[in-house]
Input
Amino acid sequence: MSDLPRNAGHPLDLDVVRAIRVNRSAAERRAVTIPTRRTVKKEWQAAWLLKAITLMDLTTLSGDDTAGNVTRLCAKARHPLRDEIVDALGARSLRVRVGAVCVYHQLVEPALQALDGSGIPVAAVSTGFPAGLSPFAQRLAEIHASVKAGAKEIDIVITRAHVLTGDWRALYDEVKAFRAACGDAHLKTILATGELATLTNVARASWVAMQAGADFIKTSTGKEGTNATLPVSLVMVRQIREYASVTGFKVGYKPAGGIRTAKQSLDYLLLIKEELGNRWLQPDLFRFGASGLLTDIERQLEHFVTGRYAATHHQPMP
Output
């Protein structure tokens, strides 16, 4: 459980929103330096990769999902590394597990059953995921249904048209209604940044979502042509930092889609450490939206303890 107060939101301030500008070239230049500014090797890299596992929303969002493959995914969530790797790392006492399991609403119940007693929350995607174009009442009903079913986190998608047309009031009202529908469940607001055209739009949408009460802001559904990138992440986490400075509320960040390698996960962890600080390197404030990332992390950890790379099919995943 988090010891942080939830983001209470803030009245929409259109003057602040419209004043936000992002210099794309400057953001891209800064982002390019992130993988080169620091390196972690050997046991320090292994420690960072163990941390990355604990920050992962292990996800399956495919049209052929079944209760069976969700149950297998949850088994991996509870026990993400093989015993021999855990023992070789001396990490048995750490009880490493993922931050959450993310599924469609229809699979919340089997996920809850498979995770019973683990303390791992279930997150459900909602509001017409991934396009977010179903009728508004239906999107609210989806949230209510997933919360009633037991989901502790709700990943919603915004109406991209509100951003593209500059209708910030409509975006604010939409996210605020979604937050109210979530009740005690945490709201993770997916901006679908690959469809927002500019980094300025990304920054403004981030700010409006936080003003409306989002507990997390998230880059992508994983279904867009362009998903999480370091420049986009830099822009979003700087909005989070500014929002915390202005309001005192810490909002979480979730990059999702396209993060498949252990090296990429380290780049994002370094970004968070440099821009937001160590407090954000906890699962109540940072998550990776990932499906294949865990496979590569386990492979890298096996290389660390054995000196050999295993074939990817050697890593047990659903």
Observations:
- DSSP finds 13 helices and eight strands in the chain.
- The CA atoms of residues 163 and 201 lie 7 Å apart.
- Strands lie at 56-59, 100-103, 122-125, 153-157, 186-190, 216-218, 252-254, 288-290.
- The first helix runs from residue 14 to 19.
